[in-house]
Design a protein that fits this description.
Length: 137
């Protein structure tokens, strides 16, 4: 009996640890996805008779139902993309200046920063496209 409970807890921890990186990547899920995620967690909590977690999840679910708005989430995606575009523009200006001066160390540093911000922008655009696709459903 005790072994079964330990096994359930171990499986719960394993499944949650596998899901966390995916959840972190989709910081602003659609409201429906957030509700579904809580429903999934609720199943685990009920299976383990974890009333404290059930209460917490019920409160989160009520908060999402009352306060979650896909239009607000859409704005956050757009703001993140705009912010990254501004960073890239600023870095490009600095890079052009450093190239004109012939400062190779600064050029290399700024090129790395440019590559990093470009990758972040591409990821943000992919997340936004995924969000838009999910929001249509």
């Amino acid at each position: 009996m005790k072994t079964t409970r330990i096994l359930k807890v171990a499986l719960l921890c394993l499944s949650l640890s596998a899901a966390l990186p995916a959840l972190a990547d989709h910081q602003w899920q659609t409201c429906a996805e957030k509700q579904q995620q809580i429903d999934n967690q609720m199943q685990y909590a009920r299976a383990n008779n974890n009333q404290r977690q059930i209460n917490r999840l019920n409160a989160q679910k009520a908060d999402i139902a009352q306060n979650c708005n896909n239009n607000d989430l859409r704005q956050k995606y757009q703001q993140k993309i705009a912010k990254l575009n501004n960073k890239i523009d600023e870095t490009q200006r600095k890079l052009t200046k450093a190239q004109a001066k012939g400062d190779t160390d600064k050029v290399a540093e700024l090129q790395n920063k440019m590559n990093e911000n470009t990758a972040k922008l591409q990821q943000a655009k992919q997340n936004y496209a995924r969000f838009e696709q999910a929001a249509k459903q």
